[in-house]
Amino acid sequence: MRYVFIAAALYILYKLVFDLIIPVSRATSQVRSQMRQMQEAQQQQFQQQQQAQAHTADRQRSEPTAPKPSKDDYLDFEEIK
């Protein structure tokens, strides 16, 4: 009777380890690696946006501004009634 109990306990322990603990640990490590990849992709996208904004700001600063038209360029306007 004792051997039957020990065999049943070992079988339950075997099933617990190989059907629950190992798959859960694999799933956990897979989720962690996917989260890490998503964070890295998000970080890269953020850096690209920052670089694009800095580049745009540099271009805007380096481009000369258009001269304002002088008062002589305008025509007088008279309202017609």
Query: Mean pLDDT, nearest integer?
Result: 86
SSE run: H
Q: Give the termini distance in whole angstroms.
A: 116 Å
Category by helix and strand content: mainly alpha
What share of the residues does DSSP label as strand, in percent? Answer: under 5%
How many β strands by DSSP? Answer: 0
The biggest sheet, with number of strands, parallel, antiparallel or mixed sense and barrel status, is: none
Low-confidence stretches: none
Question: Helical amount among residues, as a percent range?
Answer: over 70%
> What would you call the shape?
rod-shaped
Pfam families: DUF4834
Protein name: DUF4834 family protein
InterPro entries: DUF4834
Organism: Filimonas zeae
Short précis:
This protein is mostly helical. Helices cover 75% and strands 0% of the residues. The chain has one helix at 2-62.
Written description of the protein model:
By secondary structure, the protein is mostly helical. Helix content is 75%, strand content 0%. It has 1 helix and no strands. It has one helix at residues 2-62. The longest helix is centred in the middle third of the chain and has 61 residues, at 2-62. It is rod-shaped. It starts with a helix and ends in a 19-residue tail after the last helix. The relative contact order is 0.04. The model has no long low-confidence stretch (mean pLDDT 86). This is DUF4834 family protein. Residues 69-81 have a biased composition (Basic and acidic residues). Residues 32-81 are annotated as: Disordered. It comes from Filimonas zeae.
